[in-house]
Amino acid sequence: MMIRALLTSLLLLLPVSPALAQNWALDGMDPVSYGTDNAAVPGRSDLVTLWRGKAWHFASEQNRNLFEANPGAYAPGLGGLCVVALSEGRSEPGNPRYFVVIGQRTYFLRSERARARLLADPQQVLMRAKAFWARMNP
Questions:
Q1: pTM above 0.90, yes or no
Q2: Are 121 and 84 in contact (CB under 8 A)?
Q3: How confident is the model over 6-27, as pLDDT tens digits?
Q4: Which of 61, 96, 90 is nearest to 76 (CA)?
Q5: Which residues contact 124 (CB under 8 A, 6 or more apart)?
Q6: Inter-CA distances, 90 with 28, 55, 114, Å
């Protein structure tokens, strides 16, 4: 029993392989914390659930339970792409560390500068981004 606990502890300290990390949703950030804490909070390696082929990490058991009850509500809007880039007619990945919560949805941006642009006119930027997104995903 003691050996098993020791081995488990050692496994948690090992670096994550690049192959596994590629399947991490949101670079390991907790998707629930964006709305509840208004922060990009790193998830724990021992609180994970699989959804849509990705490993989603959580900061607490409560957050994992909330996500598992309704994962679509916590997934980032517009596929996690940068809202400002989409509004300009480009598809660029958003960075899970730069985000804005509008309504009940979390949107990602590529940089702090893009975040400031979105916040300057959220309704207009989001409207243009959604229109471009709809053309990309008929």
A1: no
A2: no
A3: 333 333 344 444 444 569 999 9
A4: 96
A5: 87
A6: 25, 27, 13
